[in-house]
Amino acid sequence: MGAGPALGAEADVAGRWSHALRDGRIQCDLCPRRCRLREGQRGYCFVRERHGGEIRLTTWGRSSGFCLDPIEKKPLAHFHPGTAVLSFGTAGCNLGCRYCQNWEISAARTWDRLAVRATPEMIAQSAMERGVPQVAFTYNDPIVYAEYAIDTARACHEAGVRTVAVTAGCISPEARAEFFAPMDATNIDLKGFTEDFYWHITGAHLADILDTIAWVVAEGSTWVELTTLVIPGFTDDEAQLRAEFAWIRRELGPDVPLHLSAFHPDHRMRDVAPTLPSTLRWARGLALEEGLHFVYTGNIHDPEGELTRCAVCGEKLIERDWYTILADRLTPEGTCATCGSILPGRFDAHAGSFGPRSIPVRL
Predict the structure, then answer these.
(1) Looking at the chain, which terminus has fewer C-beta neighbours within 10 angstroms, N or C?
(2) What interhelical angle do 173-180 and 146-158 show, nearest 10?
(3) How far apart are alpha carbons 212 and 216 in whole angstroms?
(4) Residues 126 and 185 grouped into a single domain
């Protein structure tokens, strides 16, 4: 794929994954929805539109805004702890999560009002000039702007900047290899562990997400961490949680970090109660009982749930207070100083000191 168009009145690029159907429609093959479009129609994500004989991405080179964040906020606990990340997104989404906290962006239907100009080269240059070691595709799902994310990731790598995809993993087998190839790390939302929840609350299918997660972990070049939002009455029952944790241990291995996050009412689920801290700590205990080595709690203050311990000897390796690194006892080689065991992940010789700030930036 090339570097994309110069931005002008039109910044669209041809969609990478599609094919023509016998009835004259064109099918988008980026995600499992397989939207079939006639002239002028948009896909479910709203940002991929049929023009003539092709489907075009209408958000290439345009963003809904930029912010410097701690990498732990993505959340990633085993990927260069304590460092900053330049975060950005576009608009649109191929899921319909009823509780989405970024719904103003993901469900936007007035995109031009939100957009700011941002070519891949501008983004990479901005990160490099600020001394920020990585860029994150986040806020809305980068799968729906895959061509833009891939182009930006390649520009970042040319500038010596790492890349992170924060995604729900709803991508087709045809597209996932090219999408994840330039991503140094990803946090994938495993939103629940029943088909009923996935279909009725997110509009996706559980099997598609599990297939993506298993493929990315097996492929091996992208560091993977998972997040599950523990929603009262929906994803907080013991049987569902244990089934999820057992699947992770069996299919992915016990070293894939899992973040269990507290739910806060939003969008179309404002009538559901927030997750109690005690519920999140209980769920973390179940995950550890099921044999997972690295389980974290999110959206609550929980020092034990923010702590990275050695899976072999139990030594405290990385201590955190929210998004601040309090102590880093890893050796420069990324091993436990007590027993010499390797901590799975991607680490620098020393943890960073960016801290808990989130700083809006302009390119």
Answers:
(1) N
(2) 20
(3) 6
(4) yes
Q: Choose among 282, 143, 299: nearest CA to 229.
A: 299
Closest CA to 106 of 32, 45, 42, 177: 45
For residue 10, what are the CA distances in angstroms to 59, 112, 120, 268? 10, 11, 16, 33
Mean pLDDT, residues 332-343 taken together: 96
The one-letter amino acid at 357: R
33 with 153, same domain: the answer is: no
| Closest to 323 (Cα-Cα) out of 343, 290, 299, 349 | 299
C-alpha 9 chain-centroid distance:
30
Q: In whole numbers, what is the pLDDT of the chain averaged over residues?
A: 92
**Which helix (DSSP H) or strand (DSSP E) does residue 50 occupy?**
strand 48-51
Instruction: Report yes or no on 4 lying in a domain.
Output: no
Per-residue model confidence as pLDDT tens digits over 8-62: 434 689 889 999 999 999 999 999 999 999 999 999 999 999 998 999 999 999 9
Domain presence at residue 85? yes
Query: How many contiguous H segments (helices) and E segments (strands) does the chain have?
Result: 9, 20
pLDDT digits (tens, 9 = 90+) for 102-124: 655 545 555 555 578 899 999 99
Q: Decide if 2 is inside a domain.
A: no
Residues 169, 312, single domain; the answer is yes
Residue 361, H or E segment: strand 359-361
143 and 24, same domain (yes or no) = no
Residue 273 structural domain: 62-357
| Same-domain check for residues 161 and 276 | yes
| Beta-sheet strand order (sheet of 223-230) | 295-298, 258-262, 223-230, 185-189, 162-167, 134-137, 84-89, 65-70, 359-361
Token pair recorded at residue 243: 């089934």
* Between residues 270 and 71, the one the model is more confident about: 71
| Helix, strand, coil percent values for the chain (each to nearest 5) | 30, 25, 50
Q: Which among 57, 79, 105 is the end of a domain? A: 57
